[in-house]
Specification:
Length: 219
């Protein structure tokens, strides 16, 4: 079996994210109480996202591994022992996601040639942005239960799909209005996500086109 490398790592991440998002939708539709399954899907998905990191980059692997272990252990303790460690779990997931977005951006933006893996990578970054922002919204909801209209105060994994839905609707600046921010701190992160989502598409498309043009001229 061919090992995952930086030349094809985004394919694995892309499919893993699709499985995660669809799995969350199915669980929300048919079994909203299946939080343990969703947590398992999240950990597997994020673990697959670091598969392409070179073995020599031990610091990166250790950092990502520590964050995943923290999220997993705190999540398991929340289920088994009855402790409310949601803030710890969500914080670890948010730091992991934004750290990985930064690493993925460096790989895509520093490319000298445009390959299908880089195009898939730019899509993965967009998906990770929406996922990362949903963890921020869930964190806000843990601290301020009335921060959003349309999101009830309940276990964060039960709210995960609704938070992701709202995050991607905000990221794409569609804004249906069925979920909306009610407090200033929530409103700040909502309009920041809208701005970042708009600028990301413009900057990424321009960057890929310029790299492609430079690649054609050199050939």
């Amino acid at each position: 079996m061919k090992p995952v490398s930086k030349d094809d790592n985004f394919y694995f991440l892309f499919y893993a994210l699709l499985v995660l998002f669809f799995g969350c939708a199915v669980m929300q539709q048919f079994y909203p109480q299946g939080q343990k399954t969703i947590l398992f899907l999240i950990i597997i998905t994020l673990a697959s996202s670091i598969a392409g990191i070179h073995k020599e980059r031990a610091l990166y692997r250790s950092w990502y591994g520590l964050l995943l272990i923290t999220a997993l252990v705190s999540g398991v303790f929340s289920f088994l022992e009855g402790y409310n460690l949601s803030i710890v779990t969500l914080s670890a997931l948010a730091v992991f996601l934004f750290s990985h977005i930064y690493s993925a951006l460096k790989q895509v933006m520093k490319a000298k040639t445009v390959t299908p893996n880089h195009i898939i990578g730019s899509i993965c970054i967009y998906l990770l942005l929406g996922f990362a922002w949903s963890t921020i919204y869930l964190l806000i909801l843990e601290i301020f239960p009335n921060a959003f209209n349309g999101l009830e105060e309940q276990v964060w994994l039960t709210n995960l799909f609704n938070a992701m839905y709202f995050s991607f609707i905000t990221l794409t600046t569609v804004g249906y209005g069925d979920i909306s921010p009610a407090l200033p701190i929530a409103q700040f992160f909502v309009f920041m996500e809208s701005i970042i989502g708009s600028f990301y598409l413009a900057i990424m498309v321009a960057s890929l086109v310029s790299i492609r043009l430079a690649q054609s001229q050199s050939q």
